[in-house]
Design goal:
872 residues; alpha+beta; six-stranded mixed β-sheet; five-stranded antiparallel β-sheet; 28 helices; 41 strands; lysosome
Length: 872
Amino acid sequence: MSGTKPDILWAPHQVDRFVVCDSELSLYHVESTVNSELKAGSLRLSEDSAATLLSINSDTPYMKCVAWYLNYDPECLLAVGQANGRVVLTSLGQDHNSKFKDLIGKEFVPKHARQCNTLAWNPLDSNWLAAGLDKHRADFSVLIWDICSKYTPDIVPMEKVRLSAGETETTLLVTKPLYELGQNDACLSLCWLPRDQKLLLAGMHRNLAIFDLRNTSQKMFVNTKAVQGVTVDPYFHDRVASFYEGQVAIWDLRKFEKPVLTLTEQPKPLTKVAWCPTRTGLLATLTRDSNIIRLYDMQHTPTPIGDETEPTIIERSVQPCDNYIASFAWHPTSQNRMIVVTPNRTMSDFTVFERISLAWSPITSLMWACGRHLYECAEEENDNSLEKDIATKMRLRALSRYGLDTEQVWRNHILAGNEDPQLKSLWYTLHFMKQYTEDMDQKSPGNKGSLVYAGIKSIVKSSLGMVESSRHNWSGLDKQSDIQNLNEERILALQLCGWIKKGTDVDVGPFLNSLVQEGEWERAAAVALFNLDIRRAIQILNEGASSEKGDLNLNVVAMALSGYTDEKNSLWREMCSTLRLQLNNPYLCVMFAFLTSETGSYDGVLYENKVAVRDRVAFACKFLSDSQLNRYIEKLTNEMKEAGNLEGILLTGLTKDGVDLMESYVDRTGDVQTASYCMLQGSPLDVLKDERVQYWIENYRNLLDAWRFWHKRAEFDIHRSKLDPSSKPLAQTAAMFPFFRKSPESKKPSAPETEADGFVLLGDTAHEQRKAAKGKTSEAEDSQPLETDKENSSSVTVAGPEMENKAGQTLENNSLMAELLSDVPFTLAPHVLAVQGTISDLPDHLLSYDVSENLSRFWYDFTLENSVLCDL
């Protein structure tokens, strides 16, 4: 514009045209260049678009503001506000022979000349044009013109004048506006309120004012400095933005006393703010001498009535070009698209891309939203990566009732799919811990049962300095080796490792037989060798080689074992020490490491990571001294904790160290399901109260709810209540009774009811029941039953004289339950069954009530935290 930076306007209805306004008006046409080359004379706007100049209008000098006519016809009619306060209607490319030719060139002149700051067309009555002027002490600053009014000389003075540009054509000069508002003040910005064509919002010198044209003598206003650039959110007509220097004020016209939100920009003053016409609540702001446009996304977040909280906003910045931006304009229909212009009239077509919001469904479907489009990720048919996802595994395990077998605890690894060796080790460890805890409690209650769940690390520490070694003969060899005498603690450790069973008899025979049955020939041979039975080891290897799925190479290993010699410098020892590292099976490798090791030095066995932790620990318990064993267990425990290896639960037990190990496991795998079931198995109270344990449990419960596994969640809650006595009863149990309502078919006279907050209280209150009980003491002494004469009624006998409070409470329960069961058919949810064995004051007939007759009238809503009965 004249003496100012250029401005830019999109055509309201011709979405491929825009106007650049500075000292002249330039009309451009935008076209796509995706499949075509750039035409001669076109300006490149972006990689996909270019602009072609259609026409130029230089007939309106001293432009200060421009507003595009909002109606469809005429297409290119613009109102231009000038420095002298006049408003001129002009056109770009308009046919002079059209029916609207009388509008072009019409001028609207105020009484006193001063600058026109802003223009606004009425969106409903398209012929009304509002103009905001500078202050004049004897005139109004807000003038509303009707561009199509039929004036006559008798009503409104008119005169024929020539245009200031010196044209020969004359036009009407209109000097009488429809409305005059804002006397003795300046108007810096204005806009019509879309909700009512008679309401005009104006940014005056010191306040924002709402004028009602039906009563121009009154106005609603609020004092503020933020009076520039007033603009209404096109999607929320009560939300208005205005600015002052570096601050943007967001107003709610329903509560106009103060801004609902104030946005502070950079120290530079603002030059323009504009709501996006295609996106709800998106506001763009531009500061002076900046190449960045800042965007504020106003999120709709409902708040409680009476709370004065600021709206949630998401702020971001975009840089459409490298040079300073003079102005910008949102495209009226293309989503998030704008065009910007620099002070030297360089233009850029720019699209603000939406943030992509990703969402995983509870069943691992991936979806994301971008703009108005919602996309779903389609899985390839042969892609098995989803099966490896821990969420999928936990979901399938939940369906198989994984973790709920508390009798044969070891079977839980089979329910998990029998694929993970760490899970197998974990559940066998927990099985042995449970088994030997019960065995110890039977022999000597409260003795060492709790020590079992503390893990082997705590067990071996309790026996330091109590074990001595002795020499033992080999079976099948003329040789003796030093083996630690097994005290009670080391025997318990071997039992937890699974090598021996109950009792003090150290016999690994049953364990070897089970390994042979499972086809673990190499492991069985190694365990036999570690127990100084080389003859049995050779026998097992030969059986494995001759079995259907056995490895014929086991015969070669058996032959090598049979040639064992104790001579340190023998060729056999030299060859085995060299070739054992080439064996693929870790158990065959540690067998030769054991035979070729020096006495007391068994690192080749103890630190072979591919050998099961339980076998290495059992080996250490047989061959290491107390000090060596303690150091080894401590080091191995730290390794297991750091790696999150579930085999380490054998060492840590269900203690604080076990929680640390499980935390590493969950961090590595995300398996909160196993963590929850494991820690519930036998952890002491202080461990169960650990916030990490509670976090895993609650997250698993939420996960079951997200999968809509209501019954599985209820089963887990039942399981939890059995194993964790400190867990609180669920809220459903205490809240279920107030939700029951009377059956409409009930023939019994209605009992007194008290309704409050949607609850119905059936029967008498506790105070009334106790009062009635005092007057019926004799009846209670005679043991008269309380009966109802209704079908499916329940009778309860009050026996013998008891304490007054207890009798009153019993009568209260009987009256309430008899009335409840007679009037309302209902069934207990699994949430309620979870506490059946823990709450003793629930009558038996409540838990066994027959609901077969009218059950179809109700169903249990498991989608709510506090489940209620719903009438179908």
